[in-house]
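Appendix B. Chain record.
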Amino acid sequence: MIHEYRKKHRINYTESDQNVNLGVEGAITLVQNMMTQYFKGFNNDNILLKDKYKAIWVVTKTKIHFNKFPKWNELVEAECFTTKVKPIRVEQETVLRNKKEEFLFVAKQEICVIDLETRKIKKINTVAYPENMEIRENVLKKPYLRLKDEFYEEDYSYKQKVRFSDIDFSRHTNNVMYVKYVLNTLPVKFFDENKVTDFEIHYISESKEGQQLKIYKKEEDKVIKFLIKEGEREVVRACLKYNPLCAIE
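Structure tokens predicted for this chain:
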């Protein structure tokens, strides 16, 4: 089955950051929307899965490499396709290019099916995922990171309560909200003075409305790592890599 999803998109003002660039959060939102429409194209979206199979797709990992951030009102084209199919997971990539077909960013995601009653992973052939899906070569060759760092109380940044507007269709915290939570540990000045080159996030467990999350941050050489916990339970780990703008210029 040859299948991909392409879309031309003009960067909206509400997707832009303080410098009217797309930004990390906006990029992750775009990738999530592309994935949703991609699955809808072959009748495997979450609305159908919930109604027919009592299951949903969940993203377990997202890795994104930035070459350039598009600006507000810039016309871009996004493309989403499958790069790997395994019994319990699918891997996909979303590539964004400008009108000159120059590469802006590429994101890869690992996705699994979760049973809504047991909250356990299901095999993808239980939800009628196409057996003959076309597999394309990875654009983003780098493997996912092993995010295993220890975090301590001195790495604690702030506490975040999950509220109504943070919740998505699956009735747990939307993936993009976790990106917002970790980026909120950094000041505006950081994004004025640095260019983000890579961002990776691993979704370990769910959180729900009303729960209190603790966000941790630790920085090394041009690398910032994050941990989100609910009590003693790990919810998310993430990593951001950057270069100072003065060094790039």
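Further analysis of this model is presented in Appendix C.
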